[in-house]
User: Which sequence fits this backbone?
């Protein structure tokens, strides 16, 4: 019944999806969204979806109406209850505020998939991981008393009594014997499940500015969204390195910086140790996302040794994002007069990207390495497509 | 569409019994059909405001989506929905136990009584189910011929302005004025109500002008009158008015509350299908308007009677009375930061009944200042029941609150106003003075707490531009929403649109949109 609502609902959801899709490029670099991470549902503000009207603006000293005990000046409610000051209207105030659409991470990932034409990830070929769990599903004749089920047991006893002709309708008396007893029994079920771990490795040496980190943060949010939609259990490991590598929490990862030098090997080494200790490569799908400005100290090729021998065989994919924001872009003079720069200064490219690319050409695991160079926020969108378009 | 969810045998018997009891109580209602709906069906019906067939628009889908989220998570409880129609259609959620179903049926009968008898509903169409279906047909026809996207965009624009009707008018105005002006024989037409009202009003005004009454300055002290209103002054004022009069031939002649009607009649941009769609939106807006202006009364009335029937008349029955009491307490609970319309409405009706039973009204009672004597006041008048029936017939919320929410009532029910204290970000009780509380409440109720907006000039700057005016009463317009709404207004008008308002410091401000860009002008003082 009320058939038009289905059509209306579909239209409404189409509008939302259309808006999200249209703004996906902007959404991806929207700072506000970043703060909403961790919840299952992200709320996307869609200012255009409601029907605007002539309404009053919010006024701070607006009075509302309430009812209850108390004298003037008594506090009645904390101020974060939005819209309560509208008093009576607040109760039915749906649609009064800016529409925030609640989208689950999965829906968002789906929209992203459609828009970026991302392939579904193929689970790691040889091993599938099964999670086991027990479920009471059947009955059997032996078991502990605690699992005795009275109803089926007495039903058996009744059957036996009737069959043996001992049953007396006037005075039904049923005695439970050992072979009548039925106990709950469980079956172990195996559920296929893939688990994934992402290593975020970031260079935090002095040359990485806040701008660099912002970009790193945004890419990692979206890779997170995508991989979460593909794997049930997703763990994130945050590593930062200058000359040495440290394992840190998410917040530290995106906020702190040091001023030391840069040795990329140290990050790889720590990641490798953690993989060996905690994540059996046959059970885990392992991803490495590395953010750097391309500076690297060390010339003996240690980085590539450890990649080729230790890391690449164990992982699904390694994505390297080199954020090359030229120094002059924030310079007060040259940012306005880039023509004054020499060609060398104009294009800045850290050396590591080239080194890694030439290494990848020779490597056995060339298809596990994806690289990308970002010159600013506008490159985030294509980078995500590059990283996740491999379907690994 | 076929509604299948009829009542079961037991439910139908309960309905018959409740109907009888309701009639015993003196309620006078249309025949009422009940439908039991499951959770999903119920949400669909609410999303459509109760109408089985409505035009297609995403806002209904949005509503449905939100309802599914809210109710699905156990927030808010909606049990019933009644349509003001003859026969009335009532939807009841089937997720509740029989005693609640009985409560709701009793509640519904009182709602229908209200629809049938309250004056605000007098002019509403009692065959709205069919009207809505016809609206749907018309719009769907246009969707096919004109194109879905075009129609949807236009409906969006109309809905953005749907509240710009004359919400104080009892009935939808079908304009005759224009015809009258041209033919000038409206006095002969007894059906031309609006026209009559205008001409008699004008005559009175003319008389006042000729005697000088219109602009005589008021003074408390009669002996001052001769000094203030000197013959010279009166003469100069009279001249001024007469000079102005021929100049002032604007359209509309007086500021027009029914903005949608003005656009329908005067916009040069609207095509036939657009006019049809706009008048459909306007019709529906007028249909829903009385429900808005009587919400507290209507809910109070229905709650008063369901409570009376369930308890005094024993409809709750022995097995259900506890369950009933629990749920009723939930429905009628007070809230520290909100007014519960059910609770306030029922308390007011009870208070009125009590006062008119005991004769606690009139001058003699009002002038009695002794608290004890006031409390024990009882003249055995016994007219309570009669009074509440009269009130339900002749008042709307504004009048109801203004007249019957007495100082004593506000004090006893501990109503207050509250404000946000910016120091510690807590809402605190601001004022308990009954006059102030009542005032704030009346402000909230006036025009549903939305700004009052009128058409001032349909030929602004002599270029057929549209000038609206917000009657400023201390609260400023939301600038972002105002601009977006102006864009929609432009869609309907086709030339530059303006709205005149004021800034928080009282200085005039003029928002304008010319189809390309927004402008905000500091207007000359009006």
Assistant:
């Amino acid at each position: 019944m009320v058939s038009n609502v289905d059509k209306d609902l579909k239209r409404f959801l189409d509008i939302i999806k259309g808006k999200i899709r249209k703004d996906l490029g902007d959404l991806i670099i929207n700072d506000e969204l970043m703060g909403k991470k961790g919840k299952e549902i992200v709320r996307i503000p869609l200012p255009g979806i409601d029907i605007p009207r002539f309404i009053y603006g919010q006024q701070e000293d607006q009075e509302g109406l309430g009812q209850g005990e108390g004298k003037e000046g008594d506090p009645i409610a904390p101020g974060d209850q939005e819209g309560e000051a509208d008093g009576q209207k607040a109760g039915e105030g749906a649609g009064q505020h800016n529409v925030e659409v609640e989208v689950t991470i999965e829906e968002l990932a789906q929209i992203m998939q459609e828009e970026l034409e991302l392939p579904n990830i193929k689970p790691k070929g040889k091993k599938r991981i099964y999670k086991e769990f027990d479920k009471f599903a059947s009955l059997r004749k032996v078991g502990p008393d605690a699992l005795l089920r009275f109803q089926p047991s007495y039903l058996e006893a009744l059957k036996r009594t009737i069959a043996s002709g001992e049953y007396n309708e006037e005075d039904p008396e049923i005695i439970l014997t050992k072979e009548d007893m039925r106990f709950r029994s469980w079956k172990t079920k195996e559920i296929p499940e893939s688990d994934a771990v992402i290593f975020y490795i970031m260079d935090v040496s002095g040359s990485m500015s806040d701008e660099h980190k912002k970009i790193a943060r945004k890419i990692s949010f979206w890779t997170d969204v995508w991989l979460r939609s593909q794997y049930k259990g997703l763990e994130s490991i945050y590593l930062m390195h200058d000359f040495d590598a440290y394992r840190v929490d998410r917040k530290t990862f995106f906020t702190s910086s040091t001023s030391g030098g840069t040795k990329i090997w140290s990050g790889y080494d720590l990641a490798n140790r953690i993989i060996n200790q905690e994540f059996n490569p046959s059970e885990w799908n392992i991803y490495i996302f590395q953010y750097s400005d391309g500076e690297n100290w060390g010339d003996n090729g240690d980085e590539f040794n450890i990649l080729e021998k230790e890391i690449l065989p164990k992982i699904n994919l390694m994505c390297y994002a080199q954020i090359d924001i030229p120094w002059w872009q924030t310079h007060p003079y040259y940012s306005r007069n880039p023509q004054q720069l020499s060609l060398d200064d104009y294009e800045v490219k850290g050396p590591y990207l080239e080194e890694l690319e030439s290494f990848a050409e020779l490597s056995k695991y060339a298809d596990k390495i994806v690289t990308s160079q970002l010159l600013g926020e506008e490159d985030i969108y294509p980078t995500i497509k590059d990283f996740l378009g491999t379907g690994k | 569409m076929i509604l299948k969810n009829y009542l079961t045998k037991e439910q139908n018997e309960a309905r018959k019994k409740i109907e009888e009891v309701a009639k015993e109580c003196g309620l006078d209602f249309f025949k009422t059909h009940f439908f039991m709906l499951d959770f999903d069906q119920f949400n669909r019906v609410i999303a459509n405001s109760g109408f089985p067939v409505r035009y297609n628009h995403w806002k209904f889908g949005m509503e449905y989506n939100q309802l599914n989220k809210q109710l699905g998570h156990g927030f808010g409880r909606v049990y019933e929905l009644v349509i003001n129609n003859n026969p009335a259609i009532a939807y009841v959620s089937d997720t509740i136990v029989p005693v609640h179903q009985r409560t709701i049926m009793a509640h519904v009968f009182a709602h229908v009584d209200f629809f049938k008898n309250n004056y605000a509903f007098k002019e509403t169409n009692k065959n709205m189910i069919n009207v809505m279906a016809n609206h749907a047909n018309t719009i769907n026809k246009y969707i096919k011929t004109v194109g879905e996207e075009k129609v949807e965009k236009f409906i969006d624009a109309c809905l953005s302005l749907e509240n710009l009707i004359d919400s104080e008018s009892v009935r939808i105005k079908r304009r005759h004025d224009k015809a009258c002006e041209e033919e000038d024989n409206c006095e002969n037409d007894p059906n031309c109500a609006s026209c009559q009202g205008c001409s008699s009003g004008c005559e009175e005004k003319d008389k006042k002008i000729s005697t000088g009454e219109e602009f005589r300055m008021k003074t408390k002290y009669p002996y001052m009158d001769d000094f203030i209103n000197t013959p010279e002054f009166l003469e100069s004022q009279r001249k001024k008015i007469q000079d102005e009069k021929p100049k002032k031939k604007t359209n509309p002649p007086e500021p027009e509350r029914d903005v949608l009607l003005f656009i329908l009649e005067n916009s040069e941009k609207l095509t036939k299908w657009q006019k049809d769609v706009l008048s459909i939106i306007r019709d529906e807006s007028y249909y829903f308007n009385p429900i808005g202006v009587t919400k507290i009364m209507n809910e109070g009335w229905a709650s008063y009677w369901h409570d009376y029937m369930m308890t005094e008349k024993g409809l709750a029955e022995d097995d259900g009375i506890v369950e009933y009491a629990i749920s009723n307490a939930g429905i009628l609970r007070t809230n520290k930061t909100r007014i519960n319309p059910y609770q306030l409405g029922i308390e007011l009706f009870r208070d009125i009944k009590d006062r008119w039973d005991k004769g606690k009204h009139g001058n003699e009672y009002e002038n009695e200042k002794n608290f004890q004597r006031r409390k024990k006041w009882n003249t055995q008048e016994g007219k309570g029941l009669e009074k509440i029936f009269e009130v339900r017939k002749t008042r709307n919320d504004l009048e109801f609150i203004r007249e019957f929410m007495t100082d004593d009532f506000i004090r006893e029910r501990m109503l207050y106003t509250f404000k946000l204290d910016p120091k510690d970000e807590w809402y605190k009780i601001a004022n308990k003075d009954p006059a102030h509380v009542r005032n704030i409440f009346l402000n909230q109720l006036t025009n549903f707490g939305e700004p009052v907006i009128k058409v001032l000039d349909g030929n602004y700057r002599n270029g057929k531009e549209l000038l609206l005016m917000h009657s400023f009463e201390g609260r400023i317009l939301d600038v972002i929403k105002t601009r977006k709404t102006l864009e929609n207004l432009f869609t309907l008008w086709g030339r530059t649109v303006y709205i005149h308002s004021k800034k928080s410091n009282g200085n005039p401000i003029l928002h304008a949109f010319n189809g390309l860009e927004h402008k905000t002008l500091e207007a000359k003082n009006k």
